[in-house]
Amino acid sequence: MMQNRKSQIRFLLVLIAAVFGARFTLAQGPDRPWMNPALPPEARAELVLKQLTLDEKLALLHGNGMAHTPFWQMPLTHLANGGAGYTEGIEGLGIPPLFIADAAYGIRDSGANGRYSTAMPSPLGAASSWDPESACQYGELIGSELRAQGYDMTLGGGVNLTREPRNGRTFEYVGEDPLLAGTIVGNLMKCEQAQHVIGDIKHYAINDQETGRMILNAVISRRAMQESDLLAFHIGISIANPGAVMCSYNRINGDFGCENPYLLRDVLKKDWGFKGFVVSDWAGTHSIGKASAAGLDQEQPMADFFGPHLREAVDAGKVPLSEIDDHARRVLYAEFLSGIVDDPPQMSVVNVEKGLEAAQRVEEKSIVLLKNYQAVLPIQPSRIHTIAVIGGHADIGMVSGGGSSQVDPPGGNAIMPPGKGETHYQDQIWFPTSPLKALREKLPNTKISFDSGTNVQSAASLARNSDLAIVFACQWESEGMDLPGLSLPDNQNALIERVAAANPHTIVVLESGTAVTMPWLDKVSGVVEAWYAGSAGHRALANVLVGDVNPTGKLAITFPRSESDLPHPVIPALSAQDEGQAEDPIKAGTPISGYTVHYNEGAEVGYKWYEAEHKQPLFAFGFGLSYTSYAYSGLIVDSEAKTARFTVKNVGERAGIEIAEVYARLPQGSDESFKRLVGWKRITLSPGESQTVTVTIDPRVLQTFDEASDGWKLTPGEYEVLAGPSSDNTPLTAHLQVR
Ligand code: BGC
């Protein structure tokens, strides 16, 4: 009780300091040498650590409830600033508390807390830009809004590979390739942390489906996970140097993510040299001694294991003090590294316009043009006088991804389900971003009519009487559930078929979180993938549809023809008993479920699987069209410098940006029958212009992991290097010699 009182008084002091614009940090002085910003974060952390009592150290290692935890369960919850977690600081020493918010594509619960946050396009959308700079702007924007709302730690940075495209969190992640995913998330988190919030990369690891996520045992060989999911984490972490990594709910080869010595201690901390702290996923902690020894540093959002029970374990000599020091040192290091000690957040008003601008620019680079038969797009107002816009609530807005990443739209859900008054964890939430209105603004002299699509006949009749039909098709997904399949729900396939039969000039705009199957593909003229488009998605989309923006995005995930082509045609079902446990934290003493998924496809994730299995995808990884076209020529590989040089020419009539992709195949005799993405370049080209570019081949993605020696090796021999516009279209080949 005393402790709580103390915390409340401290919090009041912090508030007063913030109100009067005072700095929360205490001035540097001979008695506070750690406040010297010229010292490296490691040294500063060490200096503070020496000052701490055991209880002060332990306070850094657990949460104190999340925004909606009842007060009687966690008396400090009200200090959490409305966020997902709160960890006390050591105010007397200038170490601020952690105010933690979910922020995968914007800041969660902003509406519920009476604040505003920009919704960026979904991370999977942003990954389709293949643009580290765009990822950086994404992170920067979220970081600045976090600070404006008083948060100093983010829970973003999902980099689990799309091994299972029905995973309900696919939209939160950044695709199926380790190099692309790691590069995008790394740049995003680097720039977010540069705003002085502690960065986080999650969910470590193999949290590749939501079904049974709390109990699932993911079984996969070490080599396969090193060359796929872990490689994405490693690349992301080495670019971002985040203060935190969040361990996952699931088990990996038997051990839970948050008490997995191989993943946490051996790989993350030892091999990769990660110096920040491992934070548990929310209620993902399952033990005291095992978790602590394995390398979990902080339990969130409560203190079920790392609170008083950890103290007891230390007192009883079951957990060594050196482990407590290591955990506390890592939390302190992250605080100094990220800049939150020297520059704690100051509450301010979010710059709405700046956010909308950033969200629009990112979405313009994220939209992928998948089909454009006879140049049906961009819309030519000189030829198209009437347009039928059909379905997808396009008259009201665009859909967003659900779960803990949910961003609240200003004014609440634009399409309120009956009987619901506010946004909920697993409801479809719509932003008031009507593509119909945006299109009407862009094409003031075109008659644009709307049909909701609920009556297929009336929609078809509007389409028949229009020059062009645009069907908006939505596939909503959320954390905590997987999709039953990749087919569009709610009769939307039938709607598209009927509209396309009525008007051959039919375009489908997809608002999806993952791949979609398209039984109607041959019957429509155009397909545009807009993803979950964010706060200004309607404007970005309208710009692409009318040609003010030439699309440049390319798929960061494969679109299969059917679920039967996936490595797992069905997601293994949960038993009735498992169902009950699947979304609840495992309580101590609960028997461990036998729910297991064998990832026998190993490192053959996404395009690698399709190539190895000789399966033709519907749309390949790396595919995306433009309103212009490009020709590739003259590939030269420099084996010493490990570079690929080639020329790309814009052979069309519009300026554009081509994402030129480089792949490599391991030497003959290797056990791999797929190519790996080894680099890419975004090239801006005016009509007729050609450019010779050099792509440096990242050596990490040429290597294989050797389980026997527990290390990486670069196999000598002749590697085939391929360059082209997508993973299934690589017209240029040359060879790289590795001695
Ligand atoms: C999710 C995390 C999230 C956390 C806090 C968990 O259920 O898996 O991604 O950051 O909740 O909301």
Features:
19% strand, Rossmann fold, globular, 6-stranded mixed beta sheet, single chain, 27% helix, TIM Barrel, Immunoglobulin-like, 19 helices, binds beta-D-glucopyranose, alpha/beta, 4-stranded mixed beta sheet
Overview of this protein structure:
The protein has 739 residues and is of the alpha/beta class. It folds into 3 domains: 53-338, Glycoside hydrolase, family 3, N-terminal domain (TIM Barrel, Alpha-Beta Barrel); 356-546, Rossmann fold (3-Layer(aba) Sandwich); 628-738, Immunoglobulin-like (Sandwich). Helices cover 27% and strands 19% of the residues. It has 19 helices and 27 strands. Strands 10-17-16-15-11-14 form a 6-stranded mixed β-sheet, sandwiched between helices. Strands 8-7-5-18 form a 4-stranded mixed β-sheet, with no helix packed on it. A 4-stranded antiparallel β-sheet has the order 22-21-26-27, with no helix packed on it. A hairpin with a 4-residue loop joins strand 24 (704-706) and strand 25 (711-713). Helix 5 (132-148) runs parallel beside helix 6 (178-193) and helix 13 (352-366) packs across helix 17. The longest helix is centred in the N-terminal third of the chain and has 18 residues, at 2-19. It is globular and about 80 Å long. The termini are far apart. 58% of the residues are buried. The model is unreliable at 1-7 and 9-25 (pLDDT under 50). The structure holds beta-D-glucopyranose. The site of beta-D-glucopyranose has 7 residues, from loops.
